[in-house]
Amino acid sequence: MNPVYRKRIILGVTGSIAAYKAVEIASTLTKMGALIDVILSAGGEKFVTPLTFRSVTGRAACTNESLWTSEDHIPHITLGHTADCAVVAPASANAMADIALGKGDTLLPLTILASDCPLLIAPAMDGHMYQNPATQANIETIRRRGGIFIGPEYGRFASGMTGLGRFSEPEKVVGAIRYQLSRSSDLRGKKIVITAGGTREALDPVRFLTNRSSGKQGFALAQAALDRGADVTLITTVEALPEPYGAAVQKVDSAKEMLAAVLENLPGADALIMCAAVADFRPRAVAAQKIKKTGESLTVELEATQDVLLEVAKIRGRYPGLKIVAGFAAESEDLLVNAEKKMNRKRLDLIVANDISAKDRGMGADDNAATILFADGSRKEIPLMKKDALAAEVIEAIAGKLR
Ligand code: CTP
């Protein structure tokens, strides 16, 4: 279950050309099961209509007029008291000034005054307006009272100029809301280190050896752990996937770098999940210059890399807080027998065994099926499902042992 499911979220939409992006935010959150109550400011209403939001959320969108026309005689109190979270996205300079001043002459700041839930603000304005001391003072005031800011970002404005003040992408705003609403879940305060993606072993300055791992399963695990309230460190080689909001992401390249990053993160960790496809071999020598096309063939000598999990097993005694060390076994034959051998050899608490011989699952695919083997001999079958659903199952198996 994602943390926004059945949560009531106030989405304040204020005067900015980025207001149309709030439609995507409302739509995404609604599809995730959230109940979105949109409040449009007078400026917001000029850019997008209440009907647009009603169409994507299935719920009435409020405007200032609603204060006098709503069937509810106190819409600001009802909305404010029942919300799990209030988000102003995009937030204009004027909206932030109203909130900082605690004004109550329009519905959005009035509702925020009446609420006692977390407040998230995603500013959107021209760079000079954003840098203006008046705006900065308002931001400081809101932040001091516990307001959480999303962005803004550097980029191009409607004026054609560039600077700091651009609205964050809807995906990031949704990620921030999801993260905020997960913070009190059952794995709160637990630190989980997760690795993802295939390592890259350099051959020369332009070439490397790697494998077909996309990193999707590891990223899904990171999101599933975040959704349960954990603090997640994601050690990865992957550039192409969006970073799960709230994860501390550490980029690495080779097996050697991945080992160093894992060891660096062990102190304080409650769990390590090695989902990465770490290279077992690397070129013995890395050519300083690009290897030229001479002759009919090229022989590259490979040497073994260090096994991250075996290295962790050697020093695990130093980290009594490390309750779970989990591995993945990607096998093309004798799945369970090989996985069990790996679990024992690497002294794991559990191993997620997945068959990589089928095209519809595993490496690179969006779906996966697996058997979780536990050190006590028990097993859990996970049928073919989306990688994010499978990730939730793996985190569930780990959560029981971490709580
Ligand atoms: N692993 C690791 N360090 C390596 C290689 C693998 O920590 N150098 C971890 C993987 O992240 C995974 C587990 O070990 O969690 C099993 O990886 P896998 O590639 O399936 O097995 P190998 O140990 O490499 O054995 P083989 O290649 O013979 O199947």
Question: Keywords, please?
Answer:
eight-stranded mixed β-sheet; 15 helices; binds cytidine-5'-triphosphate; five-stranded parallel β-sheet; elongated; 403 residues; alpha/beta
Would you write up a description of this structure?
By secondary structure, this protein is an alpha/beta fold. Helix content is 36%, strand content 24%. The strands form 5 sheets. Strands 12-11-8-13-16-17-18-19 form an 8-stranded mixed beta sheet, with helices on both faces. Strands 2-1-3-4-5 form a 5-stranded parallel beta sheet, with helices on both faces. Helix 1 packs parallel to helix 3 (50-57), helix 1 (19-31) packs across helix 10 and helix 11 packs across helix 15 (387-402). The radius of gyration is 25 Å and the shape is elongated. The chain binds cytidine-5'-triphosphate. Residues 255, 274, 276, 278, 280, 305, 307-309, 327-330, 342 line the site of cytidine-5'-triphosphate.
